[in-house]
Amino acid sequence: MNLNCINVPYPFGLRGKSAPGFRVTCGRNSQAILRIGEHRFRIHYVSPQHGFVVISAGPIRQVCYDRSGRPARITGIKPMNLKGTPFFFSKRNRLVATGCHYSFFANFTGSLGKQNWSTTRCTTQCNGHTDAIINGSCLGTACCKTDMPMDGAQEFTFTFDKTPPNVTGEEAGTCSAAFFLDLEEQIFTNGRDGWQMPLKDALVRFGERRMVLDWVIERVTCEQAASRNNFAPHHHHRCNNVSSCINAPSRAGYFCRCNAGYNQYDGNPYKAGGCIVKIYALTRKRTLACPQSTARMNKESLHVLAQKA
Fold first, then answer.
1. Domain of life of the organism in this record (predicted)?
2. What is the pLDDT of residues 159-185, one digit of tens each?
3. Shortest CA distance to 47 belongs to which of 271, 288, 264, 285?
4. pTM of this structure
5. d(Cα 207, Cα 303) in Å, to the nearest integer?
6. Minimal CA–CA distance to 171: which of 75, 69, 101?
7. DSSP letters of 86-146?
8. CB under 8 Å to 84, separation ≥6 — which residues?
9. Is the dihedral of CA 266, 269, 270, 275 positive or negative?
10. Of 46, 56, 40, 82, which is closest to residue 271 (Cα–Cα)?
């Protein structure tokens, strides 16, 4: 489900209603559209309290083969450069490559400059026309995956090459792709227990998939924000009066979170009155408002627990 451009949570918003760097536009059927450089992304979900946004993004690179096994179409969004924006490549993604005999290599550079960088890679293989994807798995056969190597990255370069470079014939009528994917999304959406998917059915043309970007409300740490205005301690950052300043994991900036006693998965810590008071009744917890997305809110809590582990 895509967010509506009118109701997208702050700091995102239309012209005049957003924080700097978070402007959205209205797409088809009033979908909220985020523009970064030459790219336009549909927005699925915004977490004001944990500093991330879920967008739809196409493959970084995709190679489709004709029936003779020759490359017929090469597409992709190419490398994204997030420098000059409040956004970062999130460790809430994995990097995925699909296809026969491909090597995917990615190099990420952090917001602190070229001294702050990290790489990751994975390789796919195929052993013949009898290969299949089992239960939607991604274990090396026509598919590989790797974790994001660092927090706070804003630039990446990549290679997506055949190994060996010649066509083997297994590619006929298939597509090979490299892409970012939200950790909560399945790579092959039709996978189920005991099910085998032939490669010709698995290696189809990929459209847009869900990807996560982290963001910060300002490009300073909480400590730097506090020190720049000692005479107005309640106005040194953009959090409301019942929320706290939280440093991003990369310390490339900060975001805000409602204080203890308020719901920390729904509500908006940037808007006056945006935090929602928790009500305790007997042994059951409830809040003063229904969550925007209960399913994503529950999953979001798992993200937080995983990061603390």
1. Eukaryota
2. 999 987 666 677 888 999 999 999 999
3. 264
4. 0.85
5. 26
6. 69
7. SEEE-TTEEEEEESSSEEEEEEEEETT-TTSEEEEEEE-B---TT-EEETT--SSBSEEEE
8. none
9. positive
10. 46
